Amino acid sequence: MKKVMMIGAVGAGKSTLIKALFGESERATKTQSLIYRDWIIDTPGEYSENPMYYRSLIATSHETAAVVLVQDAARNRNYFPPGFEQGFPVLTIGVVTKIDHPKADIDRAITLLRQALPEGEIFLTSAASTVGIQRLKERLMEIVQE
């Protein structure tokens, strides 16, 4: 079974999202290196924030069925360069996390994500309330089983 790779800034909620996808509620810890878990690859946030790591992300994407770009709804800046998804040879989708955060601005998050992912699916999620988690998991499972 192929995997999906989660990419996003430090603190964007990648590891917490992954725990929610697996139905786990304990607090996520900081990802220090690529972590392969079942059908997901978790990446450190530094990999999306530092262009020196882009080659590693692109190389790793060749092992995957899809790349997931994660944008925190409470952040007011994008950590992905424009057209970032074009560097990946596989399907790329977007996920907005923390949609129920007090500082969340979903429209802004989608606008920021669209700079890196001009077209394609975007899922709205909250690991805290589990909104959107099941729908995202179903879609990701479809992708890895194709």
TrEMBL record:
InterPro entries: EutP_PduV (IPR012381), P-loop_NTPase (IPR027417). CDD domains: Ras_like_GTPase. SUPFAM superfamilies: P-loop containing nucleoside triphosphate hydrolases. Keywords: Nucleotide-binding. The keyword NADP does not apply. It comes from the Bacteria. Belongs to the EutP/PduV family. This is Ethanolamine utilization protein EutP.
